[in-house]
Amino acid sequence: MLKNKHILDPWSIIENKFDSSKMIDSESIFSLGNGKIGQRGNFEEDFSGNQSIGNYISGIYYKDKTKVGWWKKGYPDYFAKMVNCPNWNTIRIEINNNVLDLNKCKVYSYKRELNMKEGWCERNVELETPNKEKIQIISKKFISLKRENIGVIQYSLKPLNKKIKIKILPAINIDVKNNDANWNQPFLETTKVKSNNNYSIVKSKVINSNFEIATFIKTKYFINSISVQSRFSENKNENLIGSQSEFDLNPENKLTLLKIGGYVNSNDTVKDEFENLINKELISSMDLGFDGLLKENSKAWENIWNDSDIIINGDVFSQQAVRFNIFQLNQTFNGNDPKLNIGPKGFTGEKYGGVTYWDTEAYCIPFYLGTKNSIVSKNLLLQRYNQLPNAILNAEKIGLNHGAALYPMVTANGEECHNEWEITFEEIHRNAAIVQAIKKYVNFTDDFDFINKKAVKILIAISRFWSQRVNFSKELNKYVILGVTGPNEYENNVDNNWYTNYSARWCLQYTIEVLNKISESEINTYNKITLETSLEKDEIKKWNEIIEGIYLPFSKELGVFIQNDGFLNKDLIPAISIPENERPINQNWSWDKILRSPYIKQADVLQGFYFFDDDFDDDEHISNFNYYEQFTVHESSLSACIHSILASKINDLDKAYEYFIRASRLDLDDYNKEIKQGLHITSMGGTWMSVVEGFAGLRVKNNEIHFNTKIPKKWDSYSFKVNVKNRKLSIKIDKNTTTVSLLEGEPINVIINGLKTQLKK
Ligand code: BGC
Prior knowledge:
Elements: E1 12-15, H1 23-29, E2 32-33, E3 37-39, E4 55-57, E5 61-65, E6 78-82, E7 91-95, E8 98-99, E9 106-115, E10 120-128, E11 134-143, E12 150-159, E13 164-170, E14 172-173, E15 188-196, E16 199-206, E17 212-223, E18 226-228, E19 231-233, E20 240-241, E21 244-249, E22 255-265, H2 274-308, E23 310-313, H3 316-332, H4 359-371, H5 374-386, H6 388-397, H7 421-424, H8 430-445, H9 448-469, E24 471-473, E25 478-480, H10 498-521, H11 523-533, H12 537-549, E26 554-555, E27 560-561, H13 585-588, H14 591-596, H15 605-611, H16 618-629, H17 639-649, H18 653-664, H19 681-695, E28 699-701, E29 704-707, E30 717-724, E31 727-734, E32 738-744, E33 748-752, E34 755-759
Parallel strand pairs: 29-33
Antiparallel strand pairs: 1-9, 2-3, 3-4, 5-6, 7-8, 7-13, 9-10, 10-11, 11-12, 12-22, 13-21, 14-20, 15-16, 16-17, 17-18, 17-22, 19-21, 23-30, 24-25, 26-27, 28-29, 30-31, 31-32, 33-34
Helix pairs in contact: 3-19, 4-5, 4-8, 4-19, 5-8, 5-9, 8-9, 9-10, 9-11, 10-11, 10-12, 10-15, 15-17, 16-17, 17-18, 17-19, 18-19
Bound molecules: beta-D-glucopyranose.
Beta-D-glucopyranose (BGC) binds next to loops.
């Protein structure tokens, strides 16, 4: 078990030690966001220690020109990266003409709390400057859920031992760059700067694109809670846009700054309207003041928790973790804007560019489907639907035709961004995750209109992809899929990855099933779809042949499916033999050594057992889980949750709990030693799945809702709500009983641990 560096609390993440070298890690944990804008937990004042300043706007990205050692035909021109925007949080403080920098002070009392219930972060620091001035700083901030363009900071400073002269410069820092930039070039250019006493605005343009943003701040001062006019003094910092004020403060007198800031952007506002919108935002929010805004924000969080909380009694370690995951998912994406999606690190770091991966469909849609209005998941799927033409172009680039689609590995607008051949061209299983999400969405919502009229076109295009990507092996007398990378990226360019082959077959089967249903129920729609997609009978015939004849590697001797051809030739030494100081192997071993090893980055065969669990009996579940688990190093955040769900399924609850903890506390306890890069937001959806689909066993099968409930030893009880089949259900599970109640919607049957019960209000 790793050392837990945060105080255990059911609703808060609390750090009470100041370790300058670890602040960059904490910045990730204390990130804030509202689905539209977000930021890392940077200090407002100067900090010369290791830090990574980050402020981002969802959907605002730069096309960073591809940089590779050796160009391969078919590589995309660019990688979309969300832009690190001017920092509206900055507050430069000078105490008796010396810039305040926590890294240079003696910090003798420190507490930072992220309050997840109400959605704010507060830092309370007592320090002594090199000149022996003792100061207390309390800074409380949040990003408003209600007013999506703004964040609010209340920053108080109190001298504790001497009278001080303080210069305070609440600013927009324009000297900010993306850390992850291929050519070390700026992504943004400043087009206009305006600063006028308490109000400043910076307009910027994303280079080589049409995206424009405006960053703004407005400030107000109080001494001992009484509003005061400030004495302005000259601001000589050309990168810090704002007005500097001066105050003389006696000990125990508290200076408080209210700073409201944020962004408007051209994705949803015409640029000529930027200033009007900002004025409107600022007038109403300044009128409300910090307390009013905070109250409004707490209310918005209360509503969110009301729908999405998972309450765990008896184990605060789990409770804190699960809430941290749900909190971050809600901070990252709220579904209000159909153009936006979920980056693997949300607003908490730049790795992965902040754009869309298969993570959205495989790990996030279940959470949003279960806890939000169904339109949220539908919008995510509609994005893929709208991007189908690009996915078709993408498949054409690799030589396929006739409307075959390969969805990108990474994308902002439907164009592929990824540029490692073994992933871009080969990690094609991503297509299947989209089909999985469509199926889950339809099972949960009964939105047949969506699948019959729209999503079916995705299914056809993906089936065409598989039917062209397979080839017939005379040697095996089977269809094979060569040159792929499975979810386990620690093996590349393999043949017959079982998960990919199985998924391909399943996509074909599901597409045929859906087409049959449409032809039986809506023949006109069927005719329209076949006409629009030029679908021919011969194609379906070929799909059926592939379904019958696809090669699925299996070892009779071991009684397990084989991850891919050649896997059994490896030195099959369980991962437990890897010394602790060589983990994670991706930070310690050469790529060559990793590729030759049997070690599995994340669920691969087991990803298939998760998606297709009903296709296998208990013995198959047990043998495959036991076999692959021993080689899996879980160096992708997406691994532990799947293992937890499968361990629940095979009734190994201790293991299910262990993996649940690993999934849910991955970031809080930094299992993979990479927290400074940001949080693993998409895998947080997996944490939710490991409770709802794992311990509570929620499935929709044959159009019926099933719960197959279990409870970890350490928990007394747990409860949550879920939206399914246009109903809202409440589920409470304790050591002996499971209670499912209908909160909203018409009566419905549910099958609880094998027994059918009718739920009525
Ligand atoms: C995983 C991928 C995932 C990506 C983004 C990688 O480490 O192997 O499956 O899509 O991270 O989360």
